[in-house]
Amino acid sequence: MTLFAMLFPGQGSQYTGMLSSFFKKNNSILTKTFDEASHYIQFNLLKIIQEGPNCKINESQYTQPIILTSSVALYRLWRHQNGKNPFFMSGHSLGEYSALVCADSINFSDALKIVHLRGKIMQKNVMNRPSLMQAIIGLDEKKVKKACLMASNYETASLASINSKDQIVISGDKKAVYKAGLYCKEYGAKSILNLIVNVPAHCKLMKPIAKKFEKILKIIKIHPPKISVINNVDVKCEKTEKKIKNALIRQLYSVVRWKEIIEFMQNKKKIIMLEVGPNKILTNLNKNHKNIVSLNTNTLNSFMKAFKKIN
Length: 311
What we know:
Malonyl-Coenzyme A Acyl Carrier Protein, domain 2; Alpha-Beta Plaits; 2 domains; 5-stranded parallel beta sheet; 16% strand
């Protein structure tokens, strides 16, 4: 038997014109979900994704609700068409909130408020501190870690996400991350890519906002997920409110263990993974896994192909 898992993307998946093939068909479920989200956080998300500008769509306080809403809308469309429920769910960084909403652990309205405020305080925390996130392609974890140590003196550069055996994201102060990237190039990295993110997520620069974020989480209720959600920081499926909240707080400043999450699911048996979001970044990371069939929902055509294959 082949297992089925859903993956939910984080920041970096956004672009102006995303999901346009769905809206051309006047998809009421997606439109209603975006209208609902816009009502809760008091700005027009649909207008931003359709018209931009890019500088706005890439601001964390807008990006985070946009990605969450996109994933929830696509999941609702999947379920409306009686699409199969997955055995596992997992979300990359911000995508963990999408997974928890779709697993009926967090109310959509609560998740929107959380990620909107999360984006705001993350931005505010580094307002006068230039930062950068880079993807290092084609270099192992040990060498990337060494490069970060070499570049960090008075400023920070550290591992932020281990996405696969040959893609690692680093995060921190702009000069230190840039310097670490140069060291990585010297050590043999194939390429260095600047990420479209305006905050240095998953590094110690985010630790000062942990207490403030904990207070935000206290006002919302989290239920045991109806579908197992593998978290980012421990690669575990937590059931209790206390443990889920604790993992979400630590996620702000901890490394995303994505490679281990994929291995955890893959070890069960053959698996189909569906990326539920507006892009195919997570799908592309799975290309070298022989036992994984990777599908995505970034266009209506991709959505329908995946639907036919899985159901």
